[in-house]
Amino acid sequence: MSNRLINWFKFASPQSFYPLAGRMIPWFWALAAVFGIAGLWISFFVAPTDAVQGEGYRIIFIHVPSSWMSMFIYLVMAAWAALGLALNTRLSGMMAQALAPTGALMAFISLWTGAFWGKPMWGTWWVWDARLTSELILFFLYIGFIALQAAIDDPRRADKAGAILALVGVVNVPIIYFSVKWWNTLHQGASVSIAKSPSMAQTMLWGMLIMALAFWMYSIAVALMRVRAIILERETHTEWVKELSEVKQ
Question: In the beta sheet, which residues pair with residue 50?
Answer without folding.
Answer: 54
